[in-house]
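$ fold --in a.seq
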Amino acid sequence: MSSQLPHLVAPAGSLRALTLAIDAGADAVYLGLRNATNARNFAGLNFDEAQVREGLAYAHARGRQVLMALNTYADALDETPWHAAVDAAAELGADALIVADSAVLAYAHAQHPALRLHLSVQASATSHAAIEFYRQRYGIQRAVLPRVLTLQQVQQVIRNTEVEIEVFGFGSLCVMVEGRCALSSYATGQSPNTAGVCSPPAAVQWLEGPDGVEARLAGVLIDRYGPQEPRGYPTLCKGRFSVGDSAAAGHAADYALEEPTSLNTLALLPQLLASGVRAIKIEGRQRSPSYVAGVTRVWRQALDSLAGGGRYSVQPAWQQELGRWAEGQQSTLGAFDRPWR
């Protein structure tokens, strides 16, 4: 078993979330600028350059890192904003860039060779050969794996590359290999790779009606909620639909593609450590600072409990806290656990 604990990488959609993540024990936080270079480009979220400076100062004073996400694909009409974001990250002193677009990687590698580069999950690198290509061509030092690989596949990647491997530990799931999904573009006309999210906020509608609340995406009915029913953010893959003759047979609409549930790999921490995973990421830059603090604190405690070398067990209090923040108050091991294999 590796004696080196993985870095705990927490999301920061705001300066408040950043400080709470650091205080809760994150080794690093990841953030984005308030523009199209960032895959969580929501109104009211993210950082201007002054806030990045303040966040960097707060993190570095406590020995922690700040990673800047430039994880959308550059506009073919104008790559300038992505180049400017790379230059800004280098000037501000970010500890690494998280990049998806190979052209942006090429620019960063050529113009700022000392700047550490991480391959974004949006680059869809699922094999050691793909990751090695990015290392040899652009000098990446870490790759974030999509959430569709089994534990055995993660281990195979780690055995065959010298690049650090980062995996998601907690948060929202994706039905596709990230970077390859075009499902929402059929409804919105915007690719997740360029709009940054699979349900662009401008396309989301909440409509009150006599039977509750309808969630629509660019006019397409995604879900219908009762007056007191919890409401998830409307994405096509996590909507409820009547499929085929199910409505005619009297069957209620159900989740046809993916249920709203959160990945939670606490139970697999010893195996991830033994496999050589170098970083564990918490998903959720669009989530509240309270979410960031609560989830980060649990994962810090879990990782620290492994450091002593004693017997590891998932504490009920950890699961109870994470249950508060899970989608639909449900969690899963996702692709890590495929009993049918």
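$ fold --in b.seq
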Amino acid sequence: MVDVLAAPQQAKTDASLRTLAAISTAHWVSHFHMLVLPMLFPFLKEQLGVGYIELGFALTVFAVISGLTQAPMGYLADHIGARKILLMGLTLGGFALIMLGLHLSYSWLIASAVLLGLANSVYHPADYAILSAHMDPARMGRAFSIHTFAGFLGGAVAPAIVAALVAMTGGHGALIVAGAVGPLVALLLIVVGIPDASAADRKVDGVHEPQQSIITPAIIVLTIFFMLLSLSNAGIGNFGVVALMSGYGESFSAANIALTVFLGASAVGVLAGGVLADHTRRHGQVAAACFAVNAAIMLAIATIALPSLLLLAAMGAAGFLGGVIAPSRDMLVRSAAPAGAAGRVFGIVSTGFNLGGIVSPLLFGWIMDQNSPRWVFGASVVFMILTVLLALVTDRGPQESFDEPDARLMQP
């Protein structure tokens, strides 16, 4: 009898694990594709004969399209199915890079940025809809954590993979091969048989959304906080390689290794930050402390000619601390959300990332065009200090609304 009862439960668990692995792989692709173009900036600059501000404009187009289409994609996920739009997003993003590799021109670069932005807007609405509908509620937090880690990992390995592809196939080949990853993963998801999620699947205990306004001062501050987080990291992620090459004399491969260390340490930091977030209520102080140390590290990178090994260590430490704050960041938003409105609140504050993504490519592209590569790190220091101040402000409000549920979830 025990075996008869256990078999369906084991099958359900296996299906959940397959779904989590498949959706996390798709999230890996999203972060990998986001960094393909920035990693190829030296190649694109030489081939297209444009400046960094023109290249940065392509990233701004990407961010604008992604920000404008995120809410409509959430609507489509509810009405035509999250599975369908996720498969379309993977395929569309791959198509954008493949076509750029086959028809390299500045107009195709902008067109590819538009298509990549549209594809990128698919992942969060579709991924979270499917995970929310099919993961065990008792393990939902860990499922989300693995999903986030997979995205960080995709960004972490992008520099090394793109550098290897350039070495083996050239810039055109790198674009085509990187693009092909999207349709291949879409095919994998079809073979695995990921489930769909409808609007009905996404209801929580049949509770309707509350009618009160959720645009509060705390939410506005958190939206600005997310924007500053984006600005703090975007310059390093998008222009770190070219800044290290032109301002620090690093080779293309060495600069890519440094960025890989930074992004890889960020992924590890996310997992460590999850443990830390479970053991404190002062999430704003955690975020502020990490970013204060981060600002000091970035200031050293910006002002001191560090030996290569010490530069790698500094980039790794900065990346780790940046990852640690991610769970605390999400807990700050969760604490500020009225009961039953967490989804909408996360949607609102996440627009801060889009705003940062719109501004940062133009800002840091302009910095590079002024032949001031060290200011890529120096400007990040300024944004980090502002982030520290805002993190302390967000920590002053009451945080008890979700503490008791968190305590219960921590029980074995």
